[in-house]
Design brief:
This protein has 436 residues and is α/β, with parallel strands linked by helices. 30% of the residues lie in helices and 15% in strands. The protein is built from 14 helices and 16 strands.
Length: 436
């Protein structure tokens, strides 16, 4: 089987029960959730790769470092630019309205704001390494796609997700969908479509858009988190509608929900809200009562919103409230089970994996990391972090879509670790030992 046919089959014919490792021909355990299958380049049990923010050579450097090619790359879209979430990458609010009114054949949008603020656009649609990267699965972390006009700066607007649920972000997300479709058309065919974190982890937790607490609607107090699944699903659906309107075909991207496991959400009474209660697909049957239109264009058709989350993503560096202790589950004073199980306030890694399986979606690890010692949050022995990750991946391989190592830049891979690691703790040696 050729690489092209093998890789495209991962997306066009996802099995509903079980999976086969194409590289080693090992059968996986039965699973209710679809899997991506083996990486078409590495032939590993799942697609595996690297976070590529920064220099263009980082992915190749990582592949050389681990002596194994990569099937996927992860790219972050920067946040913090008003022109990103206020004007959908246009120069002004007037341009937003004018661009939405343009017919698809005459679509000539401005790629302003966030499209000018970082290398991510070139990584996806530009010159090198876009051609190389678009042959692989690309995961994009998309931060803060919320109009500033209804944002929640300094926690001033706790009903932000209520506003989004009721359409305040529609035209911005619709236009962004059109722009992504236009860029995809110019970039040529891709082997893998992209996956997205939509309303990125920070939007869920520690940044001001965090859906925690409560707001008054008339005289009635509401819990903010209850609006979140509706708002998230609407953001994605309107983006999809924009993409379809512009390209004439459905949006090929798979959208992922990514709770940040180290933080918890509170309700209006100050009680912890379990992550399960914010699963966006819980509102799949929510009906839009009538077509939502602007300038004669239907931004959102009436009917059920649909299940928009196709993946559950976790970030290793945000998934534990304590550093890894011990090189195995049986090592003295290890805390592996605690990290896997979580507690009453925080999801553990295994709890999240089990939830993904129960909901019939693959689990993804777009950012896990053998982190240097940077205080109490991180393990002083990075090799132990890799060993725990490896254990976790192997245990959940029937439902794991991909894993990408985070925050190991081109030069950083070759610097000595501080403190100096013993061979059994050195991340490079442990990585090669476990992934050979």
């Amino acid at each position: 089987m050729s690489r092209t046919s093998k890789s495209s089959s991962l997306w066009s014919n996802l099995p509903l029960v079980g999976a086969i490792c194409l590289g080693s021909q090992l059968s996986f355990a039965q699973s209710a959730a679809p899997t991506f299958g083996a990486g078409p380049i590495s032939h590993y049990q799942w697609s595996t790769g690297h976070w590529v923010n920064g220099e263009s050579d980082r992915d190749q450097t990582f592949a050389d470092w681990r002596a194994m090619p990569t099937d996927s790359v992860t790219q972050s879209i920067p946040y913090g630019s008003d022109a990103w979430y206020e004007t959908a990458g246009s120069a002004s609010e007037a341009d937003v309205n004018a661009e939405i009114a343009q017919l698809p054949l005459n679509f000539a949008p401005k790629f302003d704001g966030i499209f000018k603020n970082g290398a991510w656009k070139d990584h996806v649609w530009g010159a090198y390494p876009a051609t190389l990267h678009r042959k692989k699965l690309i995961h994009l972390g998309w931060m803060d796609p919320i109009p500033k006009s209804v944002g929640n700066g300094n926690l001033a607007n706790p009903k932000v997700w209520y506003d989004i649920k009721n359409g305040s972000a529609d035209k911005y997300l619709f236009l962004l969908g059109r722009k992504f479709a236009a860029l995809d058309k110019d970039s040529g065919p891709t082997t893998y479509p992209m996956t997205f974190d939509f309303a990125y982890e920070w939007t869920l937790t520690s940044h001001p858009q965090f859906p925690s607490g409560s707001y008054l609607l008339g005289s009635e107090r509401h819990s903010t988190y209850k609006d979140f699944p509706y708002g998230w699903s609407r953001l994605v659906r309107v983006f999809r509608e924009g993409y379809k309107y512009q390209s004439g075909k459905p949006c090929p991207y798979k959208f992922s929900w990514r709770p940040q496991l180290r933080h918890s959400v509170k309700d209006k009474d100050g009680n912890t809200v379990k992550s399960e209660l914010m699963w966006p697909n819980n509102v799949a049957d929510w009906n839009i009562s009538s077509d939502v239109k602007l300038a004669g264009v239907t931004l959102l058709p009436k009917g059920p919103i649909g299940a928009q989350a196709k993946l559950l993503c976790l970030s290793w560096h945000d998934s534990s409230t304590e550093p890894v202790k011990g090189s195995s589950k049986t090592a003295p004073k290890n805390n592996w089970q605690t990290i896997l199980d979580g507690d009453a306030n925080y999801w553990g890694l295994q709890k999240a994996a089990d939830f993904a399986l129960s909901k019939g979606v693959p689990l993804c690890m777009p950012e896990w990391s053998p982190k240097r010692d940077e205080g109490a949050r991180f393990s002083p022995n990075p090799g132990d972090v890799i060993r725990l990750s490896h254990y976790f991946f192997k245990k959940n391989k029937s439902n794991l879509a991909y894993e990408n190592v985070f925050d190991q830049g081109s030069g950083d891979l070759f610097k000595p670790w501080t403190p100096r690691q013993l061979p059994q703790q050195d991340p490079a040696e442990v990585y090669r030992e476990l992934w050979k």
